Amino acid sequence: MGEVRAALAGVADPGRAAGVGRYLQMVPGGYGEGDRAIGVTVPEQRKVAGRYWRQLSLDEVATLLGSEVHEERLTAIFVLVRKFARGDEEQREAIVRLVLANTDRINNWDLVDSCAPYLLGPWLIDKDRGVLDGLAASELVWERRMAIMATFAFIKAGDFEWTLRLSERLLGDPHDLVHKAVGWMLREVGNRDRAVAEEFLSRWHRDMPRVMLRYAIEKFEPERRRRYLSGTITPPATP
After folding, report:
1. Alpha-carbon radius of gyration of the chain
2. What is this structure's pTM?
3. Cβ–Cβ < 8 Å for 145, 109
4. 3-state SS track over the chain
5. Residues 51/1, Cβ–Cβ less than 8 Å
6. What is residue 59's predicted lDDT score, i.e. its pLDDT?
7. Contacts of 22 (CB under 8 A, 6+ apart)
8. What pLDDT, on a 0 to 100 scale, did the predictor assign at position 236?
9. Which of 50, 61, 170, 181 counts the highest number of beta carbons within 10 A?
């Protein structure tokens, strides 16, 4: 683990760290307040994860995930993704348990988005998905984003049920980062089955936060987008 930290420190750029801090709102009042960046690019973090993932134990990865340094936590997630992809059922379960035990340290959108679609979602493909209901009901914004982002794995498998279920549940979420994630996942549904996406959107577009709707209809034709944004799409008749 010390080698990982040394490798990251060796490619850190203090000048870049300030920009990362602003981008991820590691500022007073920002959603990343209290975090610390050292200025390591994502490609460099992936290289470090690729170099050391085999030799790190899950206990060591858990320690990295508890770090005050943002890049160390993101690198820990990249390590877990590699281990998960190559692990057996028992190893994968241990990785998912580690993730769910440390959601308070997966505390920015890049950490969530590098984790939920590649670890939690794939694990739940053929299992009880009730954990997502618990995450979606959390007071922690990162757990709510994790819930909807995990459904990306289901979408890729052609299964849209939980994306639509959680999207409806999160329509009234107070946080912009959840709005964006829900809209993104609805857009991914539409990329694969436009009719399914439009049935949902035509019913709920007037109740959606604006940014959620804009993300969801981003790939639609200009006139279709205009009609959604102006609220002139007719919802389906109630059975």
Report:
1. 19
2. 0.95
3. yes
4. CHHHHHHHHHCCCHHHHHHHHHHCCCCCCCCCCCCECCCCCHHHHHHHHHHHCCCCCHHHHHHHHCCCEHHHHHHHHHHHHHHHHHCCHHHHHHHHHHHHHCHHHCCCHHHHHHHHHHHHHHHHCCCCCHHHHHHHCCCCHHHHHHHHHHCHHHHHCCCCHHHHHHHHHCCCCCCHHHHHHHHHHHHHHHHHCHHHHHHHHHHHHHHCCHHHHHHHCCCCCHHHHHHHHHCCCCCCCCC
5. no
6. 96
7. none
8. 67
9. 181
pLDDT in tens, 111-163: 999 999 999 999 999 999 999 999 999 999 999 999 999 999 999 999 999 99
pLDDT of residue 31: 94
CA atoms of 128 and 138, how far apart (whole Å): 18
Name residue 90's amino acid: E
- Torsion sign across C-alpha atoms 116, 119, 125, 126: negative
Q: Is residue 74 within 8 Å of residue 114, measured between CB atoms? A: yes
Least Cα distance to 74 among 85, 84, 65 occurs for 65
- Given a contact cutoff of 8 angstroms between Cβ atoms, the answer to whether 36 and 26 are in contact is yes
The pLDDT of residue 237 is above 80? no
187 contacts 149 by C-beta, under 8 angstroms: no
Return the bridge partners of 36, or none.
69
Say how far apart CA 30 and CA 167 lie, in whole Å.
25
The alpha carbon torsion through 53, 54, 56, 57 (nearest 10 deg) reads: 120
pLDDT digits (tens, 9 = 90+) for 154-202: 999 999 999 999 999 999 999 999 999 999 999 999 999 999 999 999 9
Q: What angle do CA 101, 181, 12 make, to 5 degrees?
A: 65
